[in-house]
C-alpha cells in the first residue's frame, strides 16, 4: 500500500515555517509522509536559513526540500510586497518540483484553517500569536491566553497593548535579538500561562475583557456609541468643508 505524502509550502519567514512543521509532525505520527518545500531564503536571510537547519535536524522523519531562489523582486519594496513577489516568482519552481513527485503521492495543503474554530476548541490551552488584531479579538472572545511573537507592521504595538496595558498576554523573549525564539523559551511561556498563578490571573483578566467586549457590541454599548459619534463627526466635517452626502 502506497503511503500518502503531503507537500507543504509555507510562506516566507520563520513565523510561517514553525507552525507548518508542527502540523507535519502530527501527520507523521499518523503514518503519513511529509515534504516541507521551502524557497531558498532570499537576500541572505540568515535567520530563516538557521531556523530551517535547526528544524530539519530536530525532525529527521520529515523531508525538507530547499527550492532554488527565484530572481529577487524589487529590493526597495515594502517587506510584505517583496515577500509576496518572491512567492509569485517561485511558483514555476514549485510546479516543477510537484511534477517530479509520483502522481499518486502528492497532496498540496493550500487552504486556510478555520482559526476562529481552532482557538475556541477545548483542547487549545494557549495561543502563540504574531499579534494581528483579528487573531487578538478571536483569542479574547475565546478566553484564550496569548503568547506574543510580533513580526512587523502594527504587531509590536498590539503586543505592548496586550501585555502592558490590557495584561491579557505574555511576550516571548529573543525575537528582538534576531528573530529566532528558542524552543525552551516557548515551552517556558506555555507552562507559565497554563500552570502558574500568573497564568490563572491572566485568564481571569481575559474573562473580564471578553465580557467588556460583549457589552460593547450590545445595543447602546460603547462600540455603537463610538460609531455614532464617528458618523456625526464625519457629517459635521463634511458640512464645514462644503461636502454634501
UniProtKB/TrEMBL annotation:
Signal peptide extent: none
Q: Which InterPro entries match?
A: UDP-glycosyltransf_plant, UDP_glucos_trans, UDP_glycos_trans_CS
Keyword list, A-Z: Glycosyltransferase, Transferase
Single annotated GO MF: UDP-glucosyltransferase activity
In terms of Pfam families, this protein maps to: UDPGT
Similarity section? Belongs to the UDP-glycosyltransferase family.
Question: What is the name attached to this protein's record?
Answer: Uncharacterized protein
Amino acid at each position: 500500500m502506497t503511503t500518502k505524502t503531503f507537500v507543504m509550502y509555507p510562506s516566507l519567514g520563520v513565523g510561517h515555517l514553525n507552525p507548518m512543521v508542527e502540523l507535519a509532525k502530527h501527520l507523521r505520527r499518523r503514518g503519513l509522509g511529509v515534504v516541507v518545500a521551502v524557497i531558498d531564503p532570499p537576500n541572505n536571510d540568515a535567520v530563516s536559513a538557521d531556523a530551517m537547519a535547526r528544524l530539519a535536524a530536530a525532525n529527521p522523519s520529515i523531508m525538507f526540500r530547499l527550492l532554488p531562489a527565484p530572481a529577487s523582486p524589487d529590493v526597495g519594496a515594502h517587506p510584505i510586497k517583496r515577500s509576496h513577489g518572491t512567492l509569485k516568482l517561485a511558483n514555476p519552481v514549485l510546479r516543477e518540483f510537484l511534477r517530479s513527485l509520483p502522481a499518486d503521492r502528492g497532496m498540496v495543503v493550500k487552504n486556510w484553517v478555520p482559526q476562529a474554530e481552532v482557538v475556541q476548541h477545548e483542547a487549545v490551552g494557549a495561543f502563540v500569536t504574531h499579534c494581528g488584531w483579528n487573531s487578538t479579538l478571536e483569542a479574547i472572545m475565546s478566553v484564550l491566553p496569548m503568547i506574543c511573537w510580533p513580526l512587523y507592521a502594527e504587531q509590536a504595538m498590539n503586543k505592548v497593548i496586550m501585555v502592558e496595558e490590557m495584561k491579557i498576554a505574555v511576550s516571548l523573549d529573543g525575537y528582538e535579538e534576531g528573530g529566532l525564539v528558542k524552543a525552551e523559551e516557548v515551552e517556558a511561556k506555555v507552562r507559565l500561562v497554563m500552570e502558574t498563578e500568573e497564568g490563572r490571573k491572566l485568564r481571569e483578566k481575559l474573562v473580564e475583557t471578553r465580557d467588556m467586549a460583549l457589552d460593547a457590541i450590545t445595543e447602546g454599548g460603547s462600540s455603537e456609541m463610538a460609531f455614532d459619534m464617528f458618523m456625526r463627526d464625519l457629517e459635521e466635517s463634511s458640512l464645514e468643508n462644503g461636502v454634501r452626502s
